Amino acid sequence: MPQPDNFIGKLFDKVAFKYDFLNHWLSLGFDFWWRRKLALKIAELKPFALLDVATGSGDMLLATLRCCSSIHTYYGVDISEEMLTLAKKKGLNNVLAAEASDLPFSSSTFDTTTIAFGLRNFQCRLGALKEIFRVLRPGGTLFVLEFSMPKGVIKPFYLFYLVKVIPRIAALVGAPKEAYDYLAQSILEFPPTEAVVDLFKLAGFYPCGSIPMTLGIVTLYWGKKPS
Fold this sequence. Notes:
CATH topology: Rossmann fold
InterPro entries: SAM-dependent_MTases_sf, UbiE/COQ5_MeTrFase, UbiE/COQ5_MeTrFase_CS
EC number: 2.1.1.163
Strand order of the largest sheet: 3-2-1-4-5-7-6
Binding site for S-adenosyl-L-methionine: 57, 78
Helix content: 40-55%
CATH class: Alpha Beta
Strand content: 15-25%
Function: Methyltransferase required for the conversion of demethylmenaquinol (DMKH2) to menaquinol (MKH2).
Largest sheet: 7 strands, mixed
Pathway: Quinol/quinone metabolism; menaquinone biosynthesis; menaquinol from 1,4-dihydroxy-2-naphthoate: step 2/2
């Protein structure tokens, strides 16, 4: 089950000092590729206003801004003040503390919204998706990158790496082991792809769908707000 938002905020405050290093190292650098792949897809839409929810240290925002010259307005929101401090150090000034289920923006404000590896952490995923739907303009698109469970021969190796290896490596470099135990737990408990797409539909998105990436380790979800 998703943890309360205050638990998540405190957890990410604790790991902020090692977050980027561990993200890049533990994903074997694939996190750069996943974000850039999404950023290039967003660039095709030529959005004017962008919102990144659960922005963390700002890597998704930065990747998108580098690829999308059409963006004139951007915001990032997160519940972890320490993560937002990291984002600001990277030159991202329009980032602020807010919960995904209570966004401080008017309805129909953004052309595009993104969530990179944050949806599984939301206490009320449907409520967050409905709130994002509200701030999207008609015809706008939500993109979500999220970890998923691969199938076939890779699955047992992935599970071993996720459950046994990642928390130990995190502990060795000084990050709280419980944070990366939670990472594994949250991925294992996240609903299957079909259920996530159904959640998009319940929130009002149509059409919507999913695209597996890197043998299904990550899935790109997308949904449009009807015009």
